[in-house]
Amino acid sequence: MRPQAPDEDPYNKLVDEKRAREKEIDDWLPITSSRNAKWWYSAFHNVTAMVGAGVLSLPYAMAQLGWGPGVAILILSWIITLYTLWQMVEMHEMVPGKRFDRYHELGQHAFGEKLGLYIVVPQQLIVEVGVCIVYMVTGGKSLKKFHELVCENCKSIKLTYFIMIFASVHFVLSHLPNFNSISGVSLAAAVMSLSYSTIAWSASATKGVQENVDYSYKAKSTAGRVFNFFSALGEVAFAYAGHNVVLEIQATIPSTPEKPSKGPMWKGVVVAYIVVALCYFPVALVGYWIFGNSVDDNILVTLRKPVWLIATANMFVVIHVIGSYQIYAMPVFDMMETLLVRKMHFRPSWILRFVVRNLYVAATMFVGITFPFFGGLLAFFGGFAFAPTTYFLPCVIWLAIYKPRRYSLSWCANWVCIVFGVFLMVLSPIGGLRTIIIQAKDYKFYS
C-alpha cells in the first residue's frame, strides 16, 4: 500500500481550503480588501472624519462655556485626543505579524474575545450610525438653507424632501467597495471642511465686533447655565470624534516589518490635526469674540450676509458631509458584511452588498427624517459613546496591554485622560437630554 504523500493529508487540505476561503473573504471585505494607501490618504480621511459640521456650532458651545473654560476645554480636548489617537496608531501592529484592522479586534485582544466585542462594538455602532443619521439631517438642512438663500421668493420646501435629495447621493456612493475607492470623495470633503471653516471665521471677522456684544451666559437661572454648560461639553466631545475609524483607515496602508504602517499613518494624523486646529480654533474664538452670546448654534445662520458667500459655505458643508457619511458608513458596512459572510455563510457577491448598503442608507434616511432635532440627541449620544471611544477607551486598552509602572508618566497621563473622559461621559448626556425635551415638546412628526 502506497504511503500517503504529506500534501495529500486531508487535514492539511482542510486547513488550506479554510485559509483560501478566509483570504477570499478578506479580499472582498471593505476594510481589508485594498492595502496600498499613501500617507496623505490617511491625512484627508482623518480630516474628513474629524472635522464634522460640529465645527460650526463651536462658537455656540463657547457662548455656553464662557471664555476661560471654553478655551481650556478646546485645547485640552485637542491634546488628549491627539494623544489617544497616537496610542491607537501604535497599537495597530503591536503583536508582530498581526494587524488589528478594526477597533473591536483591538478590544478583543485587550479584554478577551467575548468581552472585547461587548465593550467596543455597541459604542462604535452608536457613534458611526449616529453620525450617519446626524449627517443626513445636516446635509438636508444645509441644502434647504442654500435653497432659501439662493431663491428667496420660491415656495418653501419641507426639510423631509431635502433629506431625501441628500440621501439619493448615498444610494449611489455607498456602492464604492472600500476606503481607497472613496479617497477622491474624502479629499473633496477635507478641502471643503477647511473652506467653510475659513469662510465662517473670516466673514465673522470682517463684520467686526457687534455693537453691545455680551459675553455673559445667556441662561439667567443657575440651573439653565449648568445644563447648557454640560450640553456644550457634549458638543465639544462630538467635534473631536474621529477615533472610531482610525484603525480602519490605518488598515488600508501597506505594512512590512521594516516599514510598519504606523510611520505613514502618524504623518497623516499630524497633518490632519494641524488642519483640525486651523478649522476649530479660529471659528470658535473669532465667532464668539464677534457675536458674543447672541451667536446661533450654527454660525452660518448668524452670518446672513453676504448671501452668495454664505450660500457657497452651505454647499461646501453639503459636499463635506457627503464624504464624512461615507467614511463613517464604511466600518458599518464592513461589520454587516462580515457578519453575513462569516457567521451566516452568505457568498460574497455584489447582490449581497447592493441590498445591505441600500438598506442601511434607507434606514439612516428614515430616522433622520423622523427625528430632525437630532442635534440634541447628539450631545446625548456624544457623551455616551463619543467620549469613551475617543477620550478614554484607548487609554484603558493601553493600560490593559502595556501595564505601565504605577505613577510613571505613561500611567499618570492615561489616568488623567480616563478621568477627563468619564467626566465628559457622565455630564454631557444630562445637558443633551434637557435640550431634547425642550425641542421635542413643540415637535410635530413629518411636519
UniProtKB/TrEMBL annotation:
GO terms for molecular function: amino acid transmembrane transporter activity. InterPro entries: AA_transpt_TM. Residues 36-431 form the Amino acid transporter transmembrane domain. It is found in: Cell membrane. The chain crosses the membrane at residues 39-58, 65-86, 115-138, 159-176, 182-201, 269-291, 307-329, 350-371, 377-401, 413-437. Pfam families: Aa_trans (PF01490). Its main location: membrane. It is a multi-pass membrane protein. GO terms for cellular component: plasma membrane. Keywords: Amino-acid transport, Cell membrane, Membrane, Transmembrane, Transmembrane helix, Transport. Belongs to the amino acid/polyamine transporter 2 family. Amino acid/auxin permease (AAAP) (TC 2.A.18.2) subfamily. PANTHER family: OS05G0424000 PROTEIN-RELATED. This is Amino acid transporter transmembrane domain-containing protein.
